[in-house]
Specification:
The chain is mainly alpha-helical and about 375 residues long. The protein contains 15 helices and 6 strands. Helix content is about 30%, strand content about 5%. Bound molecules: heme C (HEC) (2 copies).
């Protein structure tokens, strides 16, 4: 009898089912697909949030994920490019983390990075540039994760209190996936049947955005305003990378011209010169919070972005040389340039602002869980 009770306790103790994770999704939106090796759970998201905001993750304790991914900027940051924990400059602008659970490719230009778990190895261990600089300091970092409340958080998320780097990657990946934004005024108009949610000016902008004249929707399409989306109802992997005509300068390695050699986009990964200057079209949700724009933060404002598309590319000067991205032979045929009246430009701008979700940038579930003195 006693034996049976103990056995029963053991059985129920061992097979305690993980409560099913509730995606904070508005009705009608598909669920993201998550790697089988790292299923979502509320406990893992909570551990991930603590790690995301903890400078213990960087070797010199100067930086955490939130140094470069700031909530009030939709988890982007207001500098052209990021700088790492030792001060080295990154060549790119920090990606906004908005609905990235749906992204089928990660970073600005990589068709092989399809899981957040693998992408996170770059800020943690990468040395070109050093971001968190964890490489060679693993034991030191793990020993910092012995302090309260980590043992309980690890135990709740993984069943025991041990910290290892697999868990230190999986939990922030789950937290990153939990950052969902579906509460803009555009959403109220488009998905919640609130016809008054958008003004006449914003509707004019919406119609321009989806027009064949501007073509914005070709690359910023679907409910996330990016082609780089897959989910339970759309597993399709469409290539979301485009050359928008930002640059065209001398490239000794090509014996010709192209994007500047320090960042040629997808071609770096595929080694195919036809991919020169191709970058991922990012989501435009919350784009008003994420200035400056483009992979290198080269366009300061949304007005500049609209002028850029109206001109059909960018004219600039790079190291004394005139760069005319409009002439790049690999520029997408959807970036042809167009003429808009001032009123229409303002309307397009107003539409882009209607994609802002104020709750997302202030949601306490996404914010720093630590008492303020303990971080930064
Ligand atoms: C030094 C600044 C910096 C730090 C620290 C940093 N990131 Fe990033 N993050 C970036 C930049 C820059 C990119 C774009 C990289 C690229 O395109 O090559 C990026 C891209 C990402 C992406 C890809 C998003 C997408 O939609 O493609 C994710 C996810 C991400 N970071 C999460 C994190 C997490 C989690 C941490 C902490 C473990 C972290 N980052 C630490 C700067 C940083
Ligand atoms: C051919 C595909 C394509 C079309 C058409 C297109 N975009 Fe883009 N968009 C991109 C790509 C790719 C990027 C990133 C480029 C880079 O960083 O080099 C981008 C970047 C942006 C950004 C900056 C986002 C950020 O987070 O930095 C904004 C804003 C934007 N586009 C708005 C628009 C608007 C408005 C239109 C219509 C006038 C439009 N796009 C048309 C592909 C496109």
């Amino acid at each position: 009898m006693r034996f049976a009770v103990v056995l029963l306790l053991m059985l129920t103790g061992c097979s305690k089912p993980e409560p099913v994770y509730q995606w904070p999704l508005a009705e009608g939106f598909p669920q993201p697909v998550v790697p089988a090796a790292n299923p979502m759970s509320a406990a893992k998201v909570e551990l991930g949030r603590h790690l995301f905001y903890d400078t213990a993750l960087s070797a010199n304790q100067q930086q955490n994920c939130a140094s470069c991914h700031q909530q009030q900027h939709a988890f982007a940051e207001p500098t052209k490019v990021s700088s790492g924990s030792t001060g080295q400059l990154h060549r790119r602008n920090a990606s906004a983390l908005v609905n990235i659970a749906y992204n089928n490719s990660l970073t600005w230009a990589h068709d092989g990075l399809t899981h957040i778990e693998s992408q996170l190895l770059i800020p943690l261990f990468g040395d070109n540039p050093i971001e968190l600089g964890a490489g060679g300091h693993e034991q030191q970092i793990l020993s910092r994760l012995q302090r309260t409340p980590y043992p309980e958080l690890f135990a709740a998320a993984f069943g025991d209190s041990q910290a290892d780097f697999r868990r230190v990657v999986d939990a922030p990946a789950s937290f990153s996936r939990s950052l969902l934004s579906f509460n803009s005024r555009f959403d109220r108009y488009a998905y919640q049947q609130d016809d008054s949610a958008l003004s006449a000016q914003e509707l004019l902008g919406l119609n321009l955005f989806f027009s064949e004249k501007l073509e914005c929707h070709h690359c910023h399409g679907g409910f996330n305003f990016t082609q780089a989306t897959s989910h339970e109802r759309q597993p399709l992997d469409r290539r979301p990378f485009h050359n928008t005509g930002l640059y065209y300068v001398s490239r000794p390695d090509l014996a010709g011209k192209g994007y500047p050699q320090h960042d040629t986009g997808l071609s770096e990964v595929t080694l195919n010169p036809a991919d020169d200057g191709r970058f991922r079209a990012p989501t435009l949700r919350n784009v008003a919070y994420t200035a400056p724009y483009m992979h290198d933060g080269s366009l300061a404002t949304l007005e500049d972005v609209i002028e850029f598309y109206a001109a059909g590319g960018l004219q600039s000067e790079i190291n004394g040389e005139l760069s005319d991205g409009r002439l790049h032979p690999l520029k997408s045929s959807f970036v042809r340039g167009f003429k808009l009246t001032d009123e229409e430009k303002q309307a397009l701008l107003a539409f882009l602002h209607s994609l802002s979700d104020e709750q997302f940038v202030s949601n306490p579930a996404y914010s720093n869980p630590w008492p303020q003195a303990a971080t930064h």
